[in-house]
Write the structure tokens for this entry.
Amino acid sequence: MELLYPHEHFSCYNYDKGQNAAFEILKRKAGDIIERDLIDTEIVFIVNGHFTLSYSKYLDLDITKGKILFFPPGSHVKATLIDDTYIIICRIRGVLQLCDCLPFEKLYREYGKLSEDEFYTLDVNKRVDDYIEHFVECVEDGLRCSYYFRTKMKELFFLLRAYYTKEQLARFFSPLMSKNSQFMNLMYKNYRNVKSVQQLADISLYSPSGFKKQFNKVFGTSASEWLSNQKAALVFQDLNNSSLTIKEIAEKYDFLSVPSFNSFCMNKFGLSPGRIRKETDIKNRDK
């Protein structure tokens, strides 16, 4: 349909004009590589296509059409497209909330012990498929108001709440599942911009002792160990997917020397950086 009074929409300061828009339609050809560092929480709908996904500790996950993916802020993702691919990206700014009667804190209490050893996806059902189709049509008409996007995000979360089981939702949102999702959101959104636990504590506005207590309560581990594990996930992706040399990766993550980087990898992965790359090369040749 034709958008009425388009000049009023396009000139409004609420019109979403920039990069990293709240809603993005992405169509890419087979053979393309999509590699991004995420700033916001993202829910991604695979409308059509087929690709392999590398994210966090996962490599070459097989992703097909009809799936819904979830990524917390600060994630590094790489998709290698096998077929022409059509995806919809919804970026969520602020604290996630399903509905007033089912906060994430309640999901955590009931399902917080679920395994996080899998990358869990949801299947697009009929209601969500209809939602996506209508949303895309309006955006392509030119309806890109930030207020509209926020309203549609609320609708999406109501649909997830209404048409998926609590266990499915707990598994899907497990990267941000905690007793205090706002604190966890803040940590995920900022950990890539800090070099120390102290800097992370400063962002949180907690006292040092309060931050330590809150972090352990929410993540079940110390901030230093958690930061180290996040760095390990980023290093692992770079070793497997980037063209950077081992020395360049060591410098990128502020290691004092290549030997110290080597020790870090041996501690985290049981393999040297060079060995990790060799094993990836062997797997790629065997495909």
Observations:
- The longest strand covers residues 41-48.
- The CA atoms of residues 183 and 214 lie 8 Å apart.
